User: Fold these one by one.
Assistant:
Number 1:
Amino acid sequence: MDKLVIEGGKPLYGEVSISGAKNAALPLLAATMLCPGQHILRNVPDLRDTRTIIKLLESFGSECRRIARGVWQIELTDITNFEAAYDLVKTMRASVLVLGPLLARFGVARVSLPGGCAIGARPIDFHLQALQKMGAELILREGYVEAKCHGRLSGADICFDIPSVTGTENILMAAALARGVTVIKNAAREPEIGNLIDMLRAMGADIKGRGTDILSVNGVAELQPADTKIIPDRIETGTYLIAVGAAGGEIIIKDCNPAHLPALLEKMRAAGLVIEEGKNTLKVCGSRPLNSIDIKTMPYPGFPTDLQAQVMALMTLTDGLSVINETIFENRFMHVAELRRMGANIKVDGRSAIVKGCGGLTGARVMATDLRASASLVVAGLAARGVTEISRIYHLERGYDNLAGKLTALGAVIRQVKE
Ligand code: UD1
C-alpha cells in the first residue's frame, strides 16, 4: 500500500488542468448498456472508480476499448451475465447505477446491496421503490437485489423524500426505455445529472426539465449510441482552490467550469481568497490571514458535501470560529480525529463541527478514511509546518487523477512511497 509524504509550508504557483468528473463518468459509463452499438465517451478520468465500473461493464459482456487518452469506445451487444457481484459493488457503491439500465434493456438484474460505508448507512431504498413503481419485481436475497420485469418498465410518478443523485440517475436511465411517461419530483440537480441527460438525449431519449427538480421522461422503444464528453470535475476543481487557500500562492485552474461551483466560490471569497472567474478557468490567490466562515452542506446548488472535509481543513488555519453543518451524510466527520492529530481544535456535536482556528497545523502521521477525508488531509499537509505522512491513499486514487503529480507541478513537495 502506498502513502503520501508531504513537506508542508510551500506555496503553490502555476497551472493545473482539471480532469473529467468521476461522478459524471460513472453514470455515463453505465448508460452505455442501454442500447447496442458503439458509444464514445471523452474526457474519462483515469481513476480507481472508473476502472472498477469498466470492469463491471466487462463482466456483463461490454467491450471497452481505450482508443486515446481519456477516450473510451464501449459496446454491449450481447449480455453474458446479469449479476453485479459483491466484490465489485463493495469497493464502489455507485455500482448500483447498472441496475436501471439492466432492467430497462434486458428486464433482469441481480445486484449486490452496497451495505454501509465510511460516511454513513447510505441505503438505496429510493432507487428500489421507484423501480417497483415502474413495474419491477424485486426480491432481496442473500445480500443481493434480484430484479425482473415482464416486457418494458412502465412510466410512473416518483417523488424522492430527499434528492438522491444516483437515485435520480438510475431512474432517468430506466425511464428512458420505459413505456409511457415517468415524472421524477424532488430530483437532484447536480451538474453531473445534466451531463447524463445530455448523453441520453443524444441517444434519442425524450427528457424535459433539465436543471430543475422535476424531470419528465417520455420513454422510447429504442435508443442509439452517442458520442459524449464528460464535464470537468467540480470537486477536484474545488479541492485545488481550497489547497491554494491553505498553502498560499497563486494558481490558474484550467479546463474547469466555475459555473458549477456557485456556493464554494462565494464562501471562499468570504474566507479571503481572491478569485477571478473565466469561462473555463479560475485564477486563485491565497494569502493569510484567512477569515472563518460557516458552511452547511446541501444538495446542488448548495454547498457540496464532497468539499466539506477540505473546507474544514482550511478553517483550522484561521484565528476565528467556524461552524460546519453536515446535512447530507450522518457520519461524515471521519477526518476530524486525523486533523486533531495535526493540532486542529474541532468539537463535533451531532451533525455540526465547531472549528476553533489555531492559526496553523503541524505535520503528523495520519490515516485516510474515505475519499474526501483523504483530500482534507492533503490540504492540511500542504499548509502544515513539517512533514505529514498520509497512509491508505487508495481512497484518494478512487477520485483524484494524478493528485501527487499535479500538486508537484504546482511546487508542492509531495512524494508517493511504498509503505
Ligand atoms: C452522490 C455522489 C457522492 C455525493 C452524494 C451527495 C456519485 C457517484 N456519488 O452519492 O459523491 O457525496 O451524491 O452529493 O455521484 N438516500 C437514501 N436512500 C436512497 C438514496 C439516498 O436515504 O435510496 C440518502 C443518503 O443516505 C443521503 C442522501 O439521501 O443522506 C443523498 O444521497 P445521494 O444523493 O443518493 O448520494 P449518492 O448518490 O450515493
Number 2:
Amino acid sequence: MALKLTDLKTEVHNDWCPGCGDFGILSAVQMALAEMNLDPHRVAMVSGIGCSGKTPHFVRTYGVHTLHGRSLPFAAGVKLANPGLEVIDCGGDGDGLGIGAGHFVNAGRRNVDLAYILFDNGVYGLTKGQAAPTLKLGMKTKSLPLPNINSGINPLMLALASGYTFVARGYAYDVRHLKEMIKRAILHKGMAFLDVLQPCPTYNDLQTKEYWSGEGLLDAAGKQMPRTYKLETIGYDGVVKSADDAEREEKIKQAMMKAFEFGDHTPIGVFYQNEWIPTYEERLNQRMPSYRANPPAVERIARDDGTPLANVTKLLDELRVT
Ligand code: SF4
C-alpha cells in the first residue's frame, strides 16, 4: 500500500521558532520517504544535539537522538549492525563540523551506505546564536557582540577532501528540489553528504529567506535575482561514469571549483557522485563472507529459555582486578 505523508508524521509537539528553515527540511524528508514508499520500519533516523537534533522526534520511523557531535559513528553502527535499514543522520553545522568534525572526516573515509543531512545555518541556535563552523570570518549576526573571529569551514570542500562519494546542496525553502536531493542521497550507494542552507530567523539575520530570495540583488532589467541557482540548469554533471581514476579526479576538481561559489551566486544540486568506490559494507563482506547474510542484527543472542549464547566468562576473567 502506498505511504501517505500523514503516515510519516508524529504527534510530538514541535517548538522550533516560527519561520525556521528546519520546517522545510522536515517536510522534504517526509515527502521523500513517502514518495520512495519506504515503510517506517525500514528507516532509522539519527541525530546529534541542536535544534536539528529534534528531527527524528517528528518523523514516524525508528529514531535515536544521540550526543553532541556523535551522531555519525552512531548512525554508522546502526547501519553496520542492520544493513537492511535506510539510515538518515541529521545534524547542525555546530554539531557536525565543530565537536563532530573528526567523525565527519572519518565517515568519508569509511563510505558506509547512509545519508547525512547538515542543517547549515552558521549559528548554534539552541544555545542562543554563537558563531558556528560555517559562519565566515568577519560576519556579525545579530546574536554576536563582535564579528566572527574564526574562519568558516566550507562543508562541501571538507566532504570532497574526506572521501564522501555523494556531495550535494539544497535549500530549506526550496522543498521540492530538496526532496529530490534527499531521495538521491538515500538511493546513493555509499556515504552521502547533503548540505542544506537553513535560515535561522531568530539568530542569523544575514543569511535569511529574504537574502537567499535575492533581496538587494537586481539583474540588468532591475528584477530581483535569487542568490541560489540549480546546477542542472547550467548543464553541470557531477556523476562519475567509470572506475577510471582520471575521471574521478576531474569530477572532484570540478566540484571543488563549484564549492567555492557562495553568496550572490550559490549553486545547489549534486556536486559529485561516485558509486565506483566500494562501500564499507562491501569491504567488510570481503573479510567476513557471512556478514551480509548474517549481520549482527539478525544473529541470535540467546536460547529459547533466555540463557545467553555468548560465553563471556573468559572476557570477564581477563578484566578481573586482583
Ligand atoms: Fe530554527 Fe534558529 Fe529557532 Fe533553532 S533557534 S529553531 S535554528 S530559528
